[in-house]
Sequence to fold (225 residues):
Amino acid sequence: EAQVTQNPRYLITVTGKKLTVTCSQNMNHEYMSWYRQDPGLGLRQIYYSMNVEVTDKGDVPEGYKVSRKEKRNFPLILESPSPNQTSLYFCASSLRTMAGYNEQFFGPGTRLTVL
Amino acid sequence: GENVEQHPSTLSVQEGDSAVIKCTYSDSASNYFPWYKQELGKRPQLIIDIRSNVGEKKDQRIAVTLNKTAKHFSLHITETQPEDSAVYFCAASQGNRLAFGKGNQVVVIP
Fold:
């Protein structure tokens, strides 16, 4: 089954304790992205990756890191989480063609609470 | 960067009526405009998209129209049903990034 998976789905942590949220897709998509969703603010892009070893900042990259060592995986790293990073996080992937963007497939989401 | 705005933020419609959500974008170079539906507690899912070389696209009860001159695009849902109740997000592509609007809550009243 074609899908995007994220782990963990729920996480409660404390300020300053490093954490990683994993994202994996089995559709051989070049493009992957991380978003955070907060009430009233919609989906805001954190980082995206056009392909292996190619990453770039989105609209709200502060406090986050990413890596793209393999095509299927795109982990999100919070080196020193703070309470303002409490949010619902979505990973997404899509196929890029010469016509440009195609449908982005979203993972199930990770609800993070930083105390 | 690209700025996408959605109006209205909340829309209530009677079952069977039509619903229209409008989005405006700022970057005239944007060329891809998807609409996503997010039901409560679930992930966003694409319902329809349109590219800048097309003015309108339909898929059963859903249609999207694009006005490049005015830089706005709209989602039209006809014969609304209770299962259409959700948050709808529009987005516009700017280079390698996809900018989303803040979402519209659509409530279909039985």
